[in-house]
Amino acid sequence: MGGWIYTIAFYVCAALLVASALGVLLLRNLFHAGLSLIAALFTMAALFILLGAEFVAGIQVLIYVGAIAVLILFAVMLTQRIAEEKVKRYTRALLPGLAVALALVIVMILVTTGLTGYGFTPFATEDTVGDIGKALLSTYVLPLEVISLLLLGALVGAIVLARKEEEK
Amino acid sequence: MHALFGWLNEKWTALIEWLGLPDFIVPAGQMVFDGICVAGFIAVLVLFLIWLERKISGHAQDRFGPMRVGWHGCIQTVADAIKLIQKEDIVPARADRWVYNVAPFVAFAPTVIAFVVIPFGDGVIVKDLNIGILYLFAITSFAVIAIVMGGWASNNKYALLGAFRSAAQLVSYEVPLVLSVLGVLMLAGTMRMGGIVEAQSSMWFIVYQPLGFLIYFVAATAEVNRTPFDIPEAEQELVAGFNVEYSGMKFAMFFLAEFANMFLVAAIATTLFLGGWKGPFQPYIPGEVWFLVKALGLTALIQVFRWTYPRLRVDQLMSFAWKLLLPLAFLNIIVTGLILVLR
Amino acid sequence: MVYDWMHLAPHMVLAGAGIFVITLDLVWGKLGRALAPWLTIAAAAAAGALALRAWGPGAVSWGGALVVDSLYVLFGLVFSVALILVTLLSLRYWPLDQERKPEYFGLLLLVTAAVYFMASSLDLILIYVAIEFSSILSYVLAGYLRRNPASGEAGLKYFLYGASASAVMLLGFALLYGMTGTTNLVGISEALPELGRSASDVGYITLVPGAVEIPGNWALFLAAGLVLVGLGYKISAVPFHMWAPDAYNGAPTPIAAFLSVASKASGFAVLLRFVLVLHPNLELVGGAWTSYVSVLAVLSMVIGSLIGIVQNDIRRLLAYSSIAHAGFILLGVVADTRLGYASVIIYLVIYAFMNIGAFGLASIVGHITGGYELSDYSGLGRRRPILAALLAVFLLSLAGIPPLAGFFAKFYVLAAIIQTGHYTLAVIAILMSVVGLFLYARVLKAMYFDRPEEAVPEVRRLSWAGAVAMVLCFVGTLAPGVYPQPLVAWAKEAIALIL
Fold this sequence. Notes:
Chain A is built from six helices and no strands. Chain A is mainly alpha-helical. Chain A has a single domain, classed as Four Helix Bundle (Hemerythrin (Met), subunit A), CATH 1.20.120.
């Protein structure tokens, strides 16, 4: 099948991603910005699929769209009248922010063009799920276990900070 | 079935070649054909399911249900659909128009593309992705966003309350839902839907994973907002929940998505726990028939639940998910893992 | 593949104790509350003792992710000491009485496990996970006082800053992985020469076209810079220091002590790990990579010392002092010799005692008088001569006055950079030591020469646990000053074993 279908798909996804990312920044209504964030996360998952990383794409949608974005929307809805209040789009830090963004763009361009010279090519694998599973339980088993500790600690911390006052 | 698709594919390729059109039309046409098949299947299926729901409701309440249009009211739903199409499309004055109009599509589209990985028979699957089950959970997690969008954009307190409840419920029940199928994945050693069915050649996984099946089925019932977990649209409290302001075709799309989702979770349960298309007397009774029988049986079971159990309270709902289903799901994973290691 | 459980023993003792403390509180609250601090101290001591067994040139296990060597042992001891001292200080720290204590100690134990992981990881993924682990729990601990808005502000600022810094660092890690195809530091080190060759084919890093060209590799240069941002935040070096004064100010003061010592040391542990493993090929990052570190060092020393002078809150003052100290410690890395790296360790060990001592006294005086302003210290020399004398010792040691240990810490760092010919840096460091002396002298003046405008009431009694901690700190501050040879020999041997 013609590789250029993928090229078209890539540019469509990339354009959507940039557009929705801009939407997160520029939309005045926080709820709309949250929805735009969901669109951005979803198109990013599409890009992962184009790169052959289906597992990452699935996890991306499941975690970011299915859980985190929903929590963001939930928080927006719970906050009183937050949606009616037009959020300020610009802060005093606009210029420094633009400078940082510009620097980041330059860095990315330099790096992506600079990286082509090196021998490392991404390895394509048929069974991404199996390979990731094996890597997680051999080379990366320790980081995996540390993450579980991290989540446990974060959970305890969140509950301690957010719990109701105890009745004395 | 398989042969039919193969024959169609061959003819289609030949046709494009004969017409002298560029190559990419072949896969593009296949995609369009797949899409039409899935959408058509869903449309017919939902018509049937709505009729089934009304029949079951009727008989559960000692009445007949629809009887007038067609034999035992079997084309009543078609008539209802035509009526819905003709209805005026009302948008509340202070609604968030853009979000309000998009929400039904966000509800419906994921359901359609979720059907892509459902294995109706041996090889009768649009695309057997190697992340099959993960893809399903990822795609269906959009349902909650559609509900939140619809509920919020309606600018109606009942709709908003419904959306609140729904977001809390769906996010909570997704956790035991995903965890409950891990046992199956450990047994099958693959996430591909076709592979999972193949792994059940000798024995259905429900035999090895009875607890997993129960957790899955309960959590799935909650995921599709069915009684006893239908507090997002509890009629007595919230009129109709998040979709109270919707009318006409937009309401129909929410409705369509809801019934298609109900079949979807039953189809997933069939694939994961009930051996998919496998069944006795093959090839005399084709696999597709077995699959539909099992999946529709489970769907009917969910519909019977509606007239069997009372609705849970919000706090009961939450504690049920976090304090019962979740620990049980972990227990199931641990026991399965131990048995697999020690065997 | 080797999975050596003994290598993980200290980490597991700490994490296990943390989980046990939290669970015990759920099951048997009364016992949990009574036992939590003692279990914490016992676990810290046990972890330190277990870590000692790993003394040696380095053993790699767990898929190449974990390394235990002499460097890790010394850092582990610093973490254990910090945990024990902070636990003693927290025991009677009054704002904590209104919060849940077992979880506090449980989280402290988990943070310590995390910093142990940071000191012993050899894999980018584990390094990142461990850094996040320690950071996220630190945010919680910094915001632990829910009745105090400043504490919440501390947690939030720390969190926002940390999240950005770790995102930037992750980008650096991603670049490293993208160039070398491995997340393992050893593998990255082996792949660097390949990159270096292709870099010399590609050309030079051109800062200003035709004018400033540094031999090296653009992408590596950027990756190193981005990683340095994340570590710079962890060690609170300028310009990544902004969170420190607010976080130390609002957090429970024992936690501020822990952050300024264990957290900072863990950042240095990762920095040293990077530098020592990649050492043979670090030039490829771009000529004199040490000059980038020296920029951080000079900025930290100058800004930390100068801004510290105008602070009136003892915790903010100590925060800026700890920023300045980060600069001094970085000088040891700039020297890039065995003596330089040894001096980093020597400095951190000594700094642990004297800085916890200073923060501990801030906590104790805050406990007794309820205030942290310099005005609360006026006349302390008359009211509480022993406490004032102890605080004076710690502050003078921080300033680097002989014969206290702080002098030797600064001495070895200076020796290392003078040996390598960084005279300008040495002059700046000495100048900033003088400025630092002025900074600490403000507290001394308040204690011994100022008269309180009104009588400062003592609202609470001195706790014996805090007193024990201070005595320990005092011994730790004095002993290396009087008899530094064992510590110095130890640190030198630790570096000699692995470099």
